[in-house]
Amino acid sequence: MQQLTAILKQYGIEPDPTTSMIMIFGIIFLTSLIIHFILHRIVLKLFERRAQGSNRLWLQIITGNKLFSRLAFMLQGMIVNLQAVLWLQKGSEAAQILTTCAQLWVMLYALMAFFSLLDIIAGLSHRFTFAAQFPLKGIFQGVKLVSAIVIGIMMISLLIGKSPAILISGLGAMAAVLMLVFKDPILGLVAGIQLSANAMLKMGDWLEMPKYGADGAVIDIGLTTVKVQNWDNTITTIPTYALVSDAFKNWSGMSASGGRRIKRCINIDTTSIRFLSDEEQEKLMQANLLKPYMAARQQEINSWNDRGDSASSTVLNQRRMTNVGTFRAYLTEYLRQHPSIRRDMTQMVRQLAPGADGLPVEVYAFTNTVAWLEYENIQCDIFDHIFAVVGEFGLRVHQTPTGSDVRAIAAVVAP
């Protein structure tokens, strides 16, 4: 104010304090408008036009997150604070009010600019494959929360005119309350670090967690929640800390291996299991997939029978081929030569324990693709073939009687 009064006195003007104060605030306001116009209407507009016309992703991300706009507002606050120091009398009430408002403005937009910087880093990190291994969004949200608390303490200390250390020391008595209020963010931050350190989960993984009804791809890993887009396009939200405290299944290992498992049974009616007759053996010998097996198997059986009483009329003293064993050998060779089954992974056809639903014959193999649609087509083609050829071995598929079966039996039995 003294500088303005001295300048006016050179021109023979004797302003009173109120007039000088109004003129100073007018100068500060006018300067702020000019700087705002230059920064936002000229500089930033030119930069945004250049970014829109460019195909560089980093330019589009920066402009989309308003980093320079917030930095410009912060610069305006710094200029207002500088003008208050230059034009107003140090220690005056007007100077204190204006500098306090300017400093609060600067701290607020510095915090928002820092948020924009973190958003830019998060946006650019999607271009790098290694960044997908870390839950950066949750970590950045934790950093934002801590930054907001720190800036909030500094702003409060500025308003009350006390040192931030006094407020921070007072927070010790409120630790229990803070732990209760910020329980989920704290647990989420710790869980995010554990997920990252142990490589338990990343964006795009197929996650299955029946407890929360989640079965789909991970689309977001936040500070407090993880979002899973299920295969029916619904979204399931899971607390981040639940992924550490509870069990879940991550199918990323299957995707990385390049093979997806087929593990399905066909139930054979046990009453249809028997030895093969000579005519049936000759018929099955015509199958290219069975010819090597049957020749080797018949030679082994003949060699064993020659050592015993081959002339005996009972089958208890002989070895013979069974239709279910030959069927299992056929399926084994069929899988081995199937173009969509991986040969470098486990493949077998085995019998499980028989039960009320017959004898389960299980097909265990891995496809050479992990794509869901292709996998299902391959699995269906294999079992279409199995159901079609099972009758060639004199076997029947077990099926619980239906209503039509009961009605057919009743029609025969009825007088």
From TrEMBL:
<dbReference type="InterPro" id="IPR010920">
    <property type="entry name" value="LSM_dom_sf"/>
</dbReference>
<keyword id="KW-0812">Transmembrane</keyword>
<dbReference type="InterPro" id="IPR030192">
    <property type="entry name" value="YbdG"/>
</dbReference>
<protein>
    <submittedName>
        <fullName>Mechanosensitive ion channel</fullName>
    </submittedName>
</protein>
<feature type="domain" description="Mechanosensitive ion channel MscS">
    <location>
        <begin position="184"/>
        <end position="252"/>
    </location>
</feature>
<dbReference type="Pfam" id="PF21082">
    <property type="entry name" value="MS_channel_3rd"/>
</dbReference>
<feature type="transmembrane region" description="Helical">
    <location>
        <begin position="67"/>
        <end position="88"/>
    </location>
</feature>
<feature type="transmembrane region" description="Helical">
    <location>
        <begin position="166"/>
        <end position="193"/>
    </location>
</feature>
<dbReference type="InterPro" id="IPR006685">
    <property type="entry name" value="MscS_channel_2nd"/>
</dbReference>
<feature type="domain" description="Mechanosensitive ion channel MscS C-terminal">
    <location>
        <begin position="331"/>
        <end position="396"/>
    </location>
</feature>
<feature type="transmembrane region" description="Helical">
    <location>
        <begin position="94"/>
        <end position="118"/>
    </location>
</feature>
<dbReference type="Pfam" id="PF00924">
    <property type="entry name" value="MS_channel_2nd"/>
</dbReference>
<keyword id="KW-0472">Membrane</keyword>
<dbReference type="InterPro" id="IPR049278">
    <property type="entry name" value="MS_channel_C"/>
</dbReference>
<comment type="similarity">
    <text>Belongs to the MscS (TC 1.A.23) family.</text>
</comment>
<feature type="transmembrane region" description="Helical">
    <location>
        <begin position="20"/>
        <end position="47"/>
    </location>
</feature>
<keyword id="KW-1133">Transmembrane helix</keyword>
<feature type="transmembrane region" description="Helical">
    <location>
        <begin position="139"/>
        <end position="160"/>
    </location>
</feature>
<dbReference type="InterPro" id="IPR023408">
    <property type="entry name" value="MscS_beta-dom_sf"/>
</dbReference>
